[in-house]
Amino acid sequence: MSQSAPVLSVKNLRLTVKRLGLEVVAGVSFAVYPGETVALLGESGAGKSTLFKAILQLLNNSQWDQEGEILFGSTQVNGLSPKELEQVRGPQVRCIFQEPALSLNPSLLIDRQLSEAVLAVEPGLNSTEVEARIDLALTEAGLSPSLVKGKYPAEVSGGQRQRVGIAMSLCAKAALLLADEPSNSLDSVTVTGLVESLLKLKAQGRIQSLLIVTHDLGVLRALGCERVLFMHQGELFEVGNIQEVLSNPRHPKLAEIVGQIKEIRALEKTVQKAKVLEDQEPLVSAKGVSFAYAKKGLWKKPGVPTLKDVEFQLAPGQFVGLVGNSGSGKSTLVKLLTRELEDYGGDLKFHGKSLVEHGLRKNRSFFFRNLQTIFQEPADTFDPSQTLGENLTECFTALGLGSEDILSIFDQLLGRLLLDKRMLAERPRNLSGGQKQRFALARAFGVKPLLLLADEPFNNLDLIAQQRLVELMLERKADPLHPLSCILVSHDIGLVSRICDQVWVVDQGRIVESGTVEEVLDRPKEAATLRLIHAAKALGSFG
Amino acid sequence: MALFFYLKPNPVPPLSDRPHRPQLNRKGFFHPLVLLCWVGFLPFVFSLFSPLPGHGFKLGLVILAMTGLGYLVFQVKRNLLWAVLLVLPIYGFTCLGYADPDFYLQAAASSGFERVLGPSSELWLGSDYEGRDILATLVLGGKNAYTVGLYCCLTALALGIPFGLGLTSNSPWIKNPSFWVVQFYEIVPQIFFVLIVLGVYNFWAAESAGERLTESYSLPIAGIAIGLSSLPAIARIIENRILLLKSERFVLALESSNVSRTKVLLYNLLWKNCTAEILIQTTFLFGSALLLESALSFAFEIGFGDLGTGGYQSWGKLLAEARRSILFGENGWIVLPPIVATLLSIMGVNALGQRLAQSSSGSEES
Predict the structure, then answer these.
(1) Residues A208 and A269 in one domain
(2) A384 interfaces chain B, CB cutoff of 8 Å
(3) pLDDT at A514
(4) Domain span at residue A239?
(5) 3-class DSSP state for residue A121?
(6) In this structure, what DSSP letter does residue A296 have?
(7) What is the pLDDT of residue B6?
(8) Is Transferase one of the keywords UniProt gives this record (chain A) (predicted)?
(9) Which run of H or E residues covers position A39?
(10) Residue A383 · residue B254 · CB < 8 Å
(11) Residue B191, domain member (yes or no)
């Protein structure tokens, strides 16, 4: 492969923050040859995103010093004028950004935006050809074109918007496709679709090579990466192909990461599935719960119902996985349970009392103390202008804890979560994302809740935080006095099957299937369940 | 040697600790100059009790206090230094005006000097057409301008914060009335509103006093009227900021930890996350109040509004009196002192606001 000329070659690239003199990327050299799929691994803060921005020449030159060469084919891109860069960025290199749904302009029609993307690369096309391109790209991204054309981004659902964002990156030819954590915010069915269409595009030769940043090993395995690059503290290492990385990591830091993944898997194996006792009083029970978001307007009229006739019972000490595609109503159910949304129909009880009763002032402290939530992006859940100590203390005080209780919580938990007490005096912006996530865990587990609601907790957590989360969850579950129950919201049925006792499959506002993990996985009855199982298998998340 | 010790710059933290804020050198608090900074507040006390007589003593004290304030800023926030140095003269003017009102009133009232003398060692800025010391009138004008600005800012804050919070309310019974009030002041032109308020006030005051008033207008009333009409500036910035923050995840996290909504709104959102913005906006407001006040007194002096002349000294009034030099075509320099004083103080206040804005946004990024 090395005989042909590389699509992208980076030679001895150094990127320095001018103000701090901090070297983020330190002398990196690598090349991507035609036909290759190259993966870039690394912890957060290793300089991956900065390297990506430098390749696309999106770094602000007044803040960054760039040394070295970035070559696309034979053109050096660093130092080119914006006009000349236009010739490179469209036809030579395209990018799928972290949140494809956010890369759409909210006030332009979707097909207008897609045609802009096509015409930027191939200005000579006439309108029927452009139309054909758009239809093809949308179909490949898993959307029927008639569904989204002629609409504004706000008029389609979140999942559809993500697919439109992906279609925008796929609709024209490119020598190199960059993908920056594309699977991060997508549900597993969409991710498998994305992987399939990427493989197809490469097979048809519409993109030559692919450079992908991700920490999702399932995606890498499914794409069949030939080479893996590993980045650590601004330096780059070649570490062979994906099988080698998993079996025999060469770099000590990489070995540590792979070891952590294996440790989490091993920890998950120790899960003992709890039996449902028939005579136990349920911790949470729902009967005929329905909910519809009110439409805004002069007269408030109920919109399309998001939840219809939901019924379930959750016994203490049970872990339940709530799975379903994005837009199926999982998050709405969680928001009902946390009392973030009110005005639901039906009967929803927690600990023997209805949620309306829990909303009374005298009951609120008990309710919130026993029902803790881990939010989707736990690192963002701290007041930026208060120190972390003040943040946690404010929450604990509101839950009725005295200062001695709070101090003992800090003593017990912070060490276990690999946090230092001195960090309590820091503002959130001075800590890394992983540290903030672990502080969020401390907040959730500090008060010994009876029910933990975790909304996609593994999506954005780094590995240490994931490991501690699983450890704490299992430990609290075994606690005889305060057995922890958990509702784990996820689109990854593989993950749920490893940790949870039961699986509830949500589709279009209903719980269509529920039962123990074995029952649901071995004898799936509904199409929605089958789709999820298929996607999880394709990404290898059962392993 | 001791001075060298105090002036030693803070040690540069190693690279790994860079995101941390540079710590204030605590010893700096006890530096003699910094201690003198607190003395800067004493002129206000002197204006009430006056323990020591003598103009020169008070002048020296004010200058020392200004130096101390400059040094404190140099220690705490170095990037504000130039902006603060621009603002310091107006602070000094005010201190002097309050510390020694009799001295300056006498100097400004006595018309014993010859008319339109150039600057000399006795009269630093010369004398005007009435034969008064221009420096003394400048000091009194600065004091009055500062007073109006202070009243304006206090009124705008006291009313702008509740109305701004009202705008973010979900209940239409709170939101709509706040909206009407804020929009009313957005629509009405500022200077007309202030003129009308002052006219009505003077009419009422003359009626109750039973005679035609010779005083031009009341400083606190002018300040409050300007503050009322610039209430939207504060209210809107609070509305924007809080609506933006309300959708942040940490609000949700706090509310699901049983922190009451009122506390989240008033403590976490308003006090912890809006103070910088409000402070910055207030400095700009102060600058615009200075400008409006001098425009107002200029207007009254040239006979606009039929409220009479005399009474308070003001930079606008000085300028209006000096404008005849342009008609006569001689002694044109006499218009310069009030113009330069207004220009410098407004520029200084605006530079201070801009620097505050920069430093607060910069600290959030890093």
Answers:
(1) no
(2) yes
(3) 87
(4) 8-250
(5) helix
(6) P
(7) 41
(8) no
(9) strand A37-42
(10) yes
(11) yes
- With 0.80 as the threshold, say if the pTM is over it: no
What does the pLDDT read at residue A452? Answer: 92
Query: What pLDDT, on the 0 to 100 scale, is given for residue A300?
Result: 58
Q: So what's the pLDDT on residue B307?
A: 55
Domain end, chosen from A449, A480, A509, is at A449
Cα atoms in the 13 Å half-sphere on the side-chain side of B184: 9
- B147: in domain: yes
First-last CA distance in chain A: 32
Cβ-defined contact of A443 to B257 (cutoff 8 Å): yes
A107-159 pLDDT, tens digit per residue, is 888 888 888 888 888 888 888 989 988 888 888 877 888 888 888 887 777 77
What is residue B183's predicted lDDT score, i.e. its pLDDT?
95
Give the count of domains, chain A: 3
B256 touches chain A (CB under 8 A): yes
CB of B15 within 8 Å of any CB in chain A?
yes
Query: From A384, which residue of chain B is nearest by alpha-carbon distance?
Result: B273
**Is A210 domain-assigned?**
yes
Same domain, A266 and A243: no
**How far from B330 is each of A61, A508, B115, B326, B334, CA to CA, in Å?**
55, 87, 13, 7, 9
Mean pLDDT of A199-220: 82
Helix or strand holding residue A237 (H, E): strand A235-238
Same domain, A237 and A143: yes
| Pairwise CB contact (< 8 Å): A398 & B260 | yes
Task: Give the whole-angstrom CA distance, residue B6 versus residue B25.
Answer: 9
Residues 6+ apart with CB under 8 A from A83: none
What's residue B2's pLDDT?
42
Higher pLDDT, B305 or A342: A342
Q: What is the CATH number of the domain that holds A270?
A: 3.40.50.300
Residue (of A34, A175, A173) closest to A92 by Cα position: A175
Which pLDDT score is estimated for A225?
A: 81
CA-CA distance, B175 to B181, in Å (whole number)?
Answer: 10
Determine whether the interchain pair A369/B258 forms a contact, defined as Cβ–Cβ distance below 8 Å. Answer: yes
Burial class (CB in 10 A: 0-12, 13-18, 19+), B354: middle
Read off the tokens for B301. 């002096």
Question: B224 or A202, which is more confident?
Answer: B224
Q: Which domain holds residue B356?
A: 72-360
Q: What is the DSSP letter of A439?
A: H
Q: Taking 90 as the threshold, does the pLDDT of residue A340 lie above it?
A: no
Q: How far apart are CA A162 and CA B17, in angstroms?
A: 38
Give the best-scoring range by mean pLDDT among A325-334, A396-405, B75-84, B321-330.
A396-405
Residues of chain B with pLDDT under 50: 1-24, 44, 47-48, 308-309, 363-366
- The per-residue pLDDT of chain A, averaged, comes to 83
Q: Is A23 on the interface with B (CB under 8 A)?
A: no
Are A460 and A513 in the same domain? Answer: yes
Amino acid at A303: G
Q: How far is A359 from chain B (nearest CA, A)?
A: 10
Alpha-carbon gap, residue B22 to A24, rounded angstroms: 22
Q: How confident is the model at residue A543 (pLDDT cuts 50, 70, 90)?
A: low
Cβ <8 Å between B257 and A395: yes
pLDDT digits (tens, 9 = 90+) for B11-58: 444 444 444 444 445 555 565 555 555 555 555 455 445 555 667 777
**Cα A476–A480–A485 angle (5° rounding)?**
45
**Contact of A472 with A449, CB cutoff 8 Å:** no
